[in-house]
């Protein structure tokens, strides 16, 4: 009996050690390099200047970037949290990110869409930790319950640690037939992974009629929050946009050197805008999984109407409103 108990204890200790070890390889990336053009009329009213929405107290509390920062910290270490920013916004992010290590700022010379932002940050992480599992967070979301939402991120992190080949997207049950969001059509459940499903296909910004059909069929809103091993994400980018991938990989020997910024400037001058959802994820549904998020209300704060809807959801009426 004692030998059996000892064996169980040893197994539990090994499992705990493996869990702690895998958490040492968990990283967050907060995407904060957008220009927020569709919300400019509202953010100008709130802040009195031209700052993008992520540096603005849209919901009447901290800035959206600080709210995202606090949310990520429920599960992910600030020391392993990177911020993708745009150099033109330094006046706005400088004070917010003054405590972040310089290595954790991924400074883009300009906004070239989500794919370059994601690829640049992934290569910066891969240079430090090839075993990394990475969670990506846009910095312009309303989320009704941060603790509950990050509990779902924990499930996604654990899934991605076991299934290093999968990219796990967080999908939310739709509250309306929204035409401005991307939609995910789930496939069969993935074996041994609770609440995680394969992906049949993406539907990007459907018309109203199709959105109603998608809602009835059990499709989910794509939150663009995703979790995966660094290798799975780099593989899918290399297969979908090989030219962009090679352009960035060629610069990896310069990371951390005084010439990195100049080389990245030259690269970005040549880049067209590349959208990660359309030009990477939508082309590879077989590499994706979707985790159904329950018990959390969510909104992408992309336009004034959705900001007002989020304030109503939260029962908040800030001074500017």
Brief account:
This protein is α/β, with parallel strands linked by helices and 321 residues long. It is built from twelve helices and eleven strands. The radius of gyration is 20 Å and the shape is globular.
Description:
- It is a single chain.
- The protein is α/β, with parallel strands linked by helices and 321 residues long.
- It is built from twelve helices and eleven strands.
- A five-stranded mixed barrel has the order 6-9-7-8-10. Strands 5-11 form a two-stranded antiparallel sheet.
- The termini are far apart.
- The model has no long low-confidence stretch (mean pLDDT 92).
What keyword list fits this structure?
single chain, 321 residues, alpha/beta, 5-stranded mixed barrel, two-stranded antiparallel sheet, 21% strand, globular
Oligomer: single chain
The helix-and-strand class reads: alpha/beta
Mean pLDDT: 92
End-to-end distance? 67 Å
How many strands in all? 11
> How many individual helices?
12
Largest sheet: 5 strands, mixed, barrel
Report strand %.
15-25%
Helix fraction, binned, reads 40-55%
């Amino acid at each position: 009996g004692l030998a059996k108990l000892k064996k169980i204890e040893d197994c539990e200790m090994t499992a705990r050690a493996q869990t702690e070890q895998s958490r040492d390889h968990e990283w967050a990336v907060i995407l904060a390099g957008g220009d927020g053009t569709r919300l400019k009329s509202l953010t100008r009213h709130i802040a009195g200047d031209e700052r993008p929405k992520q540096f603005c107290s849209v919901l009447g509390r901290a800035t959206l970037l600080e709210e995202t920062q606090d949310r990520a910290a429920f599960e992910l270490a600030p020391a392993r949290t990177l911020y993708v920013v745009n150099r033109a916004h330094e006046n706005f992010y400088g004070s917010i990110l003054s405590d972040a290590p310089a290595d954790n700022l991924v400074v883009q010379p300009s906004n070239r869409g989500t794919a370059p932002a994601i690829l640049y940050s992934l290569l910066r992480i891969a240079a430090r930790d090839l075993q990394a599992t990475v969670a990506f967070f846009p910095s312009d979301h309303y989320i009704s319950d941060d603790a509950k939402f990050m509990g779902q991120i924990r499930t996604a992190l654990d899934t991605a640690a076991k299934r290093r080949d999968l990219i796990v997207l967080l999908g939310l049950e739709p509250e309306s037939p929204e035409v401005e969001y991307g939609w995910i059509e789930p496939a069969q459940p993935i074996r041994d992974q609770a609440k995680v499903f394969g992906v049949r296909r993406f539907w990007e910004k459907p018309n109203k009629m199709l959105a109603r059909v998608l809602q009835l069929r059990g499709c989910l809103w794509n939150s663009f929050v995703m979790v995966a091993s660094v290798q799975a994400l780099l593989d899918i980018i290399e297969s979908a946009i090989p030219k962009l991938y090679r352009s960035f990989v060629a610069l990896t020997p310069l990371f951390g050197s005084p010439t990195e910024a100049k080389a990245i400037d030259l690269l970005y001058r040549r880049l067209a805008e590349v959208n990660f959802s359309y030009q990477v994820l939508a082309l590879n549904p077989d590499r994706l999984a979707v985790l159904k998020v329950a018990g959390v209300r969510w909104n992408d704060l992309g336009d004034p109407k959705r900001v007002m809807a989020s304030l109503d959801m939260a029962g908040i009426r800030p001074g500017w409103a």
